[in-house]
Amino acid sequence: MVLHVSSANCTDEVSTLLAFLEEQRQGIRNALLGLTDEQAATTPSASELSLSGLLKHVTEVEQNWLAMAGCDIAPIQRTEADWGESFRLVPEKGETVAGQLDAWAEVARRGAEFSRAADLEATFALPEAPWFPKEDVSLRWVLLRLITEMARHAGHADVIRESLDGKSSHELGE
Predict the structure, then answer these.
(1) In whole angstroms, what is the distance from residue 16 CA to residue 10 CA?
(2) pLDDT of 18-77, one tens digit each?
(3) How far apart are CA 27 and CA 29, in angstroms?
(4) What is the DSSP string of 19-64?
(5) Model confidence, pTM
């Protein structure tokens, strides 16, 4: 399935932001189409990234941003010891591509519900970290951050999938 943002989907600002976010998510999902969990875990490019690892990463990133923004969703807590697990599925813990796709769909559903009910202008402070801005941010900023995060990783997913079998996310989604 190729998803294109149409003006019919963009009746207000939140709908527009969510439509562009969903378009990027679909690119990542398309890159996983037709692969086994083993294929999705391979790292065929110069990077250590796999498609299943990207899937887990974007799920956790989206969940954590939503939690910071005030959505009633538990953040993913990582320690130095398990940080690497945020970029790979752990079959010993029962993690699969299908299960991760379901978890991501639930995060997306809850995030959309929260975003439609929340004030895009309301701001909140982020935890102190070198990768976060120092100033307070708004839900609008978080949604834009998620769009850029998903777009970046949708591009990674395309390269990985093309390295696996020459297929592009767009071609797979037709």
Answers:
(1) 4
(2) 999 999 999 999 999 999 999 999 999 888 999 999 999 999 999 999 999 999 999 998
(3) 6
(4) HHHHHHHHHHHHHHTT--HHHHT---SSSS--HHHHHHHHHHHHHH
(5) 0.91
